[in-house]
Design goal:
Residues 1-21 are annotated as: Disordered. By secondary structure, the protein is α+β, with helices and mostly antiparallel strands. It has eleven helices and twelve strands.
Length: 350
Amino acid sequence: MPPRVPDLVAGPPAPRPRPSPRRRVTRVVLGAVVPVALAALVLLPDLVGLDHHLPFAVFTALRPALTVVGAVGVLAVLAVLLVRRRAGAVGLAGLAGTALVVAVAAAAVVPRAVPADPPPPGGTPLTVLEMNVFEGHADVGALAAVIRRERPDVVVLPEAGERFRARIAALVPDYRSWTNVPSRSADVRGITVLAAPRAGDVTARVISDAPGTPSDTRYPWAELTGGILGPARLGAVHVVSVVPGWIGYWPGELDLLQRWCARSGGPALVVGDLNATPDHSAFRAGTQGCADAATERGESLTGTWYSGVPRALGAQIDHVLTTGGPRARDVSVLDVPGSDHRALLVHLRL
């Protein structure tokens, strides 16, 4: 069929009109700036202190899992662009910037999966078991079975008052037990400590400063001394949660960990639910001078909370910290029914 006359006589196609400056700016913002900014707000809020506020504190706690999600997203978008073979400069800039943010986040996360050199042989072995028992709802029989099997020297149980102390003590009668709250207090307020016969004459005292003072904490803390600990002090702590109405106290409570982590105070351990991970800037500031046992042993990415999701998706907010001599040689995360936390079992050398 011969071509139509209009097609033969038509001139070259008219040039496309250039987008206005405002449209070009909008395209750059939406295609490059917004994706990079969103990635930074989700993965790196601690670099500018936003992780002291919600929801950024939660994003920071979940950075290991979110970093994997971000990396998968970048690779998926890149694959789509390669298949279609069309990608504008703005889109490529956005993808490259997002990839850089993911790489920075990965650089903060990945080293925590690599164990440091083990501690030298010798020294007094010390085994510590820590578990938040979720307002006293943890399965006391299952927890007692773990204690009988692992024989920890010291057990620290946040959210365990007198009611839970009495129940667990009845199942492990050879352990001495103590709680830091009055008998009428709800379990969620207390911390119960158990000491094995091997621990010797360990003594405990309450740390609960006057309400409204700079050193006040929402939950009372405790300190253990003597016996197997020798010159070391052990702080049993439960830092306030990152929830509305309470998060304002959270950085200050983490700062109070310096009473043990400051090297001038001598050898010490901090054991408990800190409601923070090494990704939080407040955690790093408050624990300066301390080493995180799980980080030293390459287990820092195993979630202790929330126990209802796979370990790789959770956050490790339960910790054993050391300074001034004690070193971790082995760290395990254990499942115990009835709690929203997993237990942390740490073998150390004093």
